[in-house]
C-alpha cells in the first residue's frame, strides 16, 4: 500500500517513534523508506544561516539518516538517504513530488514545544501542504521506538460529515483493510458550539441525528470492505473526547481530515485536528481535504 515512505529526521529523539512506524508501514508491502534530513538555510526570522551552524548541522543530518538506514536494514527494509539544504517543510513537500512518495511519517514534540520550535511548526506546515497522507508520532514516555513492536490493529476514524472527514475516512479504511484492523467511527457533538445543558431537546436531537448520518456512511463503507466496525456518538469538547476515546479502546492510530491548502496557519492551529496532533499519545494519520 505504501511503497515509498518518507521519514524526515534531524538527529533529535523526537523522530525515534516516527522512524519505527515508517519502517513498520513500509515493511507491510515491501516498500522503501526514504530517510531525509533538511539543513535549514534560514533562521526563524528569515536570517541567513551562519556557516558555523551548517558545519554542525550537516554531519548531524547525515548521521541521522545513517541511523535510519541501520534500523531499516535490521528490519529487512530497503532505504534511501538524502540530505538537503533549505526550508524544511518546502523541501519535504518538494521531495514528495520528486520521488512519488506515498506517505510521510514524522515526529512532533507536542503542544508546548510546537508553539516555540521549528519542528512543531514544520510538522503542521507539512500536514497543510503535503499532497499525501501524513502520520505524526508524538514523543511520549510510552512511545514505541522499535519497528518490531509497531502494530496497527485498531483505527479510530472521527467524522463530522465534511469532505475532509470523508476523505480521511477513505484513507483510514484503506489502511484498515490492508492490515485487517478493527475500525471505530466516532462523531462528537461539540458542546463548545452549543450550550447543550440549556439547548432544546429538538436541537440536541438534530445534532445527534446529523452525527448518526455521518457515521452511517463510513460504517457502510467499512462493512462493505468486510471490516469489523464499531460506532459511537459522543458529546463534549471534540479534541478531548477523541483522545479519551482512543485511549479507552487502546487504538493504534487516529485518521483525521484537515482543511488543507486553503487554511491559514492560524486556522490550522485552531482546528481540532491540530490539537489532536499536538496532544494525542497515539499516532495520527492526517489527510488533506484538497487531495
Task: Give a written overview of the molecule.
- A ten-stranded mixed sheet has the order 3-2-1-4-5-10-9-6-7-8, with helices on both faces.
- Strand 2, helix 2 and strand 3 form a beta-alpha-beta unit.
- It has two domains: 145 residues, HUPs (Rossmann fold, 3-Layer(aba) Sandwich); 138 residues, Rossmann fold (3-Layer(aba) Sandwich).
- It contains ten helices and ten strands.
- About 6% of the residues have low confidence.
- The chain is an alpha/beta fold and 291 residues long.
- The protein is 45% helix and 23% strand.
- The radius of gyration is 19 Å and the shape is globular.
CATH class of the largest domain: Alpha Beta
Number of strands: 10
Largest sheet: 10 strands, mixed
Order of helices and strands: EHEHEHEHHEEHEHEHEHHE
In angstroms, what is the radius of gyration?
A: 19 Å
Return the average pLDDT rounded to an integer: 85
Please give the CATH architecture of the largest domain. Answer: 3-Layer(aba) Sandwich
The number of helical segments is: 10
Q: In order across it, which strands form the biggest sheet?
A: 3-2-1-4-5-10-9-6-7-8
CATH superfamily of the largest domain: HUPs
Shape, principal axes of CA atoms: globular
| Distance N to C terminus | 17 Å
Which strand-content bin applies to the residues?
A: 15-25%
| Oligomer classification | single chain
User: What structural class results from the helix and strand content?
Assistant: alpha/beta
Helix content: 40-55%
Looking at the structure, the CATH topology of the largest domain is Rossmann fold
Q: How many domains is the backbone divided into?
A: 2
Give the low-pLDDT segments. 110-119, 260-267
